[in-house]
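1st attempt posting a full record on here, be nice pls
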Amino acid sequence: MRVAVLIGLGVVVYLGSLIVTLPASHAWHWVGDRIPAEVQGLRGSVWDGEAAGLFVEGQQLHAVRWNFEPRALLGGELRYRLRGRLGDGELRAVANADHRGRLRLENVRFDADAADLIRRFAAEPPPVGIEGRIDGHFSEVALDADGMPERIDGIINWMGGGISVGERYPLGDYAVRLRSRAGDIHGEVATVDATLRVDGDFRLAANGTVTGEVIYQALDGIHPDLVQGLQFLGIPEPRAENRIRFEGSIYDPAGFQGYLQ
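the predicted structure (as tokens):
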């Protein structure tokens, strides 16, 4: 009986050591065809490793690093700390997955060049060039088994923002607070320090439709060309407090329409 127990313990230890040291490349060979992503340059193990590149729906992260947190297994979850390069910036997050295929990201932090970020994720290119940097912090991003968002709570900052149409026009700093509610994403836009005031709120539906209301107001230091541009867009007195309702789709940025209240 004692011999059988010792042999059993030996087998368990042996199998455990195989799992702990399982090369990441071998694990990806087994499950990669079931994951909508491509990887390059895998090194390390499934518990502690890195990939030179990770491609998800055409977007690439460089130098992706992961570290497994075994304590999460007690709660029935797999938890990894992730870190990677996003263009000239960085992305960090804690990823949790349960047996139902749901993914929850916690403490998500990122920063990147604004133009590069828009180029990567916008369904259509914006009608003007985008300047500055974008950073964000999300306490939670929860996705269901189909990859659709269930819960979102975070803030995105546009720092040193500006637009370019041949010439560069500085705007300033803005913040957007995002929260999910009943399947939609609700946002609050706030001017931090800028020459063009943009304050308001909006709602993003699951089908990509956006509706909302904002206040536009030209402030001290704004470029005269921007004042003329606002007048051309139908705002007769840009330096007044103008309330505008808007609607459109994230899949057609040029199709947004605004209505002066």
